[in-house]
Amino acid sequence: MSERPFPKVRIHYHRPPDRDEVYEQLLVLDAPEVKVTYLPRYTAGALRVGDETILEEGAPILWFTFPDSWHDIGRFHRADGTFTGLYANVITPVAFEPDRWETTDLFLDLWLPRAGTPRVLDEEEFEHALAEGWLDPETAARARDELLGLEEAYRAGSWPPAIVRTFDLDELL
Q1: pTM for this structure?
Q2: Is 3 part of any domain?
Q3: 142, pLDDT greater than 60
Q4: HEC profile of the chain
Q5: Which CATH number belongs to the domain containing residue 88 in this structure?
Q6: What percent of the chain has pLDDT over 70?
């Protein structure tokens, strides 16, 4: 991997009701329409969807954050760099400061494996959060609309965006 001096950003990530985490990532592309961050080594344990490991301990991740969007997209890999698929995370639009970003997770996710069709994740968590009052009805409706919009755009062939399909780890070399 290249030793290019990318600036760091600290992403303050709130997950209702009371979980706050800070992720430090490298800002590898800062364009008006998309910001791409790079996490060289994922360290929170393997992430699975069904029987499939979609993200391994030690694997790199590229995150695509679109200003004013209600989702971001991660390009997930195995520890050896093999691409496994795309993970769309429904969130509040990110508030950007030069080295500090803030967002809130809205529980719903969409997994698009390298080969296959999209799969909605975490619907039970979303319904639980709504029932507990962790999400207000307006925000919950916006989250559902975002997820439906992603699914419709996929079926129409307009999602994921071209940059997410083409920008991969080799861009960092």
Answers
A1: 0.94
A2: no
A3: yes
A4: CCCCCCCEEEEEEEECCCEEEEEEEEEEEECCCCEEEEECCCCCCCEEECCEEEECCCCCEEEEECCCCCEEEEEEECCCCCEEEEEEEEECCCEECCCEEEEEEEEEEEEEECCCCCEEECHHHHHHHHHHCCCCHHHHHHHHHHHHHHHHHHHHCCCCCHHHHHCCHHHHC
A5: 2.40.380.10
A6: 97
